[in-house]
Amino acid sequence: MSKNKDSKDTRMTRGMTALYLLLTVGVGVAILLNVINIQWVHGDEWRARGERREAGLRTDPARRGVIYSSDGKILATTVTECDLYLDLDNRYVLEEDGRVKTDRHGRPVESGPITDSNFARHLDTVCMMLSEACRLHPASYYRERIATERTKERPRRCFLVQRDVPYSVWLQICRLPGWSRGVVRQVDGQSVVHQVRAHIYGNLAENTIGFRNRKDAGSYTGLEGYYDSILRGQDGLFKCRRLTKGIWLPDEPGTPQEVEQRTDQDRVDTMLLQRRIDGQDIVSTIDTRYQDIAETSLREALLRYGGLSGCAILMEMHTGYILACANLAIDTAIHNYREMRDRNVAVSDVYEPGSTFKTVILTAMMDDPANNIDTAMRLPARYKNFGGKNGEIKDDHGGWDSLSLKGVIEQSSNVGMSDLGWQLYNNRRDTLRHIVERMFPYGKMNPDVKAPEYKTYVNDLHRSNRDFLNFCYGYSTRISALQLVTFYNALGAGGRMVKPQFCRAIIDRDGTRREIKPVVLNSQMCSRRTAELMSKMLEGVVENGTGNNIKNTTYGIAGKTGTAVHNYSNLRRYNASFAGFFPSENPRYTCLVVVEDIPAYGRQAALVFKHISDCVVAMDMGLSDGAVKSAWPRLEEDSAKAQQRPELLRGKQDDIKELYRRLRLPYLSTDSAEGWVCYRQATDTTPARYDSYRPTEGLVPNCYGMTAKDAIEMLHTMGYRVTLSGYGKVASQSPHGGQAARKGTVVNLILK
Question: How many helices (DSSP H) and strands (DSSP E) are in the chain?
Answer without folding.
Answer: 23, 34
